[in-house]
Queue: 3 jobs
Job 1
Amino acid sequence: MTFTMIIELLIVLAALYVGSRYGSLALGAISGIGLAILVFGFGLKPGTPPTDVIYIIIAAVTCAGTLQASGGMDWMIQIAEKMLRKNPQHITFLGPLVTFFLTVLVGTGHVVYTIMPIICDIALKKNIRPERPCGVASVASQVGITCSPIAAAVVAFVTISNANGYMVSIPQVLMVTIPACVCGLMCAAAASYKRGKDLDKDPDFLARKADPEMYQYMYGHSATTLDKEITKEAMASVFVFLGALLVIVGFAFCQMIKIDGVSLAKTINLPKMNICIQIIMLTAAAANIIFCKAQPKKAVAGAVWQSGMVAVVAIYGIAWLADTYFGNYMDQMKEMLTGLVTNYPWSIAFVFFLVSVLINSQGAVVVAMLPLAYELGIAGPVLLGVLPSVYGYFFIPNYPSDIATVNFDRSGTTVIGKYLLNHSFMMPGLICVFVSTIIGYLITNVFFAGYFASFVQ
């Protein structure tokens, strides 16, 4: 590795680090500064922006935004709350499952901001230390991204894998990530079940409870969505959205079904999957606007649409910057890393995790690093197995869902920690990602190795 390569790599890392400190749009924008330095200062050939993935994110986020604007998301949250309040004693396990599957359905973890105060409230009223369900539930809201058929990370994995000869489909990805991540979450929840001191034995909590003003703050009201009126249009928008997801999954299955060696998708002249997703999501968004009274202005003002557009800018800048650097030094990278990835191909999981710690976006990690992994000769089944490792941004607790969870917990038990890394999300995050990655790898490379290896073109 030459001195120039090291300097340029430091520029890439510095851009990612500074962008993550500012957060939001800065992730993509400050990556542009790094890109400008590499191209205009060092004369590197610009890489290619990940346009296919960006278009899919825009379509999916537009659809999810209209779902939120029509009130459909409120109905989904209300259904989840009813289930949680019927089983408050199991909140440490059920809370994470709820946030996980909400993310799986909608494709973004930012949907959990409404349900998280409810999880905290149920735990506190049941005298369960809120840190136990809240820490895992926040992690679960992000773990669900690699399990969603419309999430950027999944779509990008399929698109990039297909372009590199590994013809995996969305359902086949979910066959690995969903069971792997659910197992990881349940292990994290089990480890959190007795985490920390019980509330009646926690001196810090008891001191806060003894303060009349703080007692009123903690117990004086309940967080709930059950008092919200759900309209027929809101219910209809949920069915429109779920119907769109089913159509997407159905089209993906058409790619898996082969007749005389030819996929059913080719037989009936279906477009490529990325085009199908865009068409279906935009059509569903239009149906929500026309038939379900989803106001476009309300949709673009909602948290789901705005967070999705931020993700677009982040992926745009980060992936373009990474593709520029690695694209110009691919031969050198292969020479340096071939021995390692040949003997220990699963070690790419550590790279995915460390990059995620820096850039706070699973989709961006996939778009930026997956092409490099394929260029290094790592097999598709290995990369599919370690896909859960692209979630590492819980490590430094600066992600919005983690910060919001700390603020939602009125008991004060969910904390960042004096030394930054000793926070409430570290233990469940590490357990979940570690277990999920191991199980995913075992599914694709041990138990069903022949099946997942059969997708090579």
Job 2
Amino acid sequence: MNGDIIIKDTLEQLGTEAANRYIAHVYCYAGTCEVGFNDSCFQMEAGDCMIIVSNKLVENVTPSGDFRCKVIHIKDTFLEMCTPEGNNYYVTGTMSLFLNPVMKLMPEEQEQCRADFEEVEHRLYRTSHHFYQEVLMSCVRTLFLDFYDFHARIYGYVDVPVQGAQVLSRFFLMLESGTYRTHREVAYYASELCVVPKYLSELCIKFSGVPANYWIKRFTIQEIKKLLRDKSLTIVQIADILNFSSPAYLNRYVHKNLGVSPTDYRR
């Protein structure tokens, strides 16, 4: 259990390597905070909750001076254990959270969210309980289901067929694991998932509004931007890390997707 759940009062871990295996669940008590995520900027206000499903897509975090929050970082493997069996709604929820991680809660939802956070924190530190793991997992599962409920109220409930849910889940696991560093073609992912490229893209469009190649490109671009910000790496090294055939090919890819050359982006 050690390290499966980490509770913080700040967002200092977001965007760091240490948080890459965790899903961050945030509740804002006061103030505001701007979060750069997936190439967009989002703002949290008091009463909002935020779920960061991919720490790799966090670019910057700018809290106001009076910002107060509670953050529950849950390791991906532990969260998977807590996922209600047979519930495929997490796929739809996860994909929309890639596009907008902030949820505006109603007053009664705010109250429920605060209660869920407090219960998880209480149970996390009550290690003497004879059924500690089971009780903690139950609290996390409740938190999870309440977030599903908030999301369904905001975006509408969509029941994802089992097969489609499995395909999408595995697709995102491949991206999260860094497969885009060596493979950036939809056909490759479709082959690994035992489906045709058209089916994979149609699933992505149906449940996220964008095709499969959008997600592959998004993960690739975010990685490129982070690597370019590391001035200790040369363009040649970055091209090698991301398996581009040459620095010139990397240059064309960056210019096409960012509108500037790798050198200019670093300025």
Job 3
Amino acid sequence: MSDKSKKSKGKKKNSRWPLKVFLMSIALSAVLSFFSSTALSGAGYIVAAAVLIVFILLGILFDMIGVAVTAADPRPFHSMAAHKEKGGKEAIQLLNRANEVSSFCNDVVGDICGIVSGSTAAVIVLQLQRHFNTTSILVSIGITALISGMTIGGKALGKTVAINDCTNVVYRVARVMHTLHLFR
């Protein structure tokens, strides 16, 4: 295959990516919003806080994965794949698709988790305002600031781990993918 035909094939493949991301975003957002709405329906503070923490942690985890995939060196994974180690082949596939994996993890999942955690925060604020019989904006500001700090601080910590230990992060994700028979 000539270089020109490879480039045009690559361009065509990449031109579909925004549409795929758009459709995946809609589907994933609907699923996660449904889960959140179902879990929060008539829920108390503890359940609402647990749902919120799950979405914050999910956003942090996927942010770590997206960063690790872009920072990882493929050489150890080529060796693992050559030795037929579990997860080696999946790790290579992740690294070969680093742009798409990073976009999906950081943008699609990360942004959706941010949006859903924001709506979950609104539910918590309303519950607190009803409980304390107040309409004080301070409750909203306090909860929003706390959630922002947890999310941003968690992502900063996660990025540090992802950059400094990218091989291990990618390997763990690849092992999970191998176990779940993804990319086979």
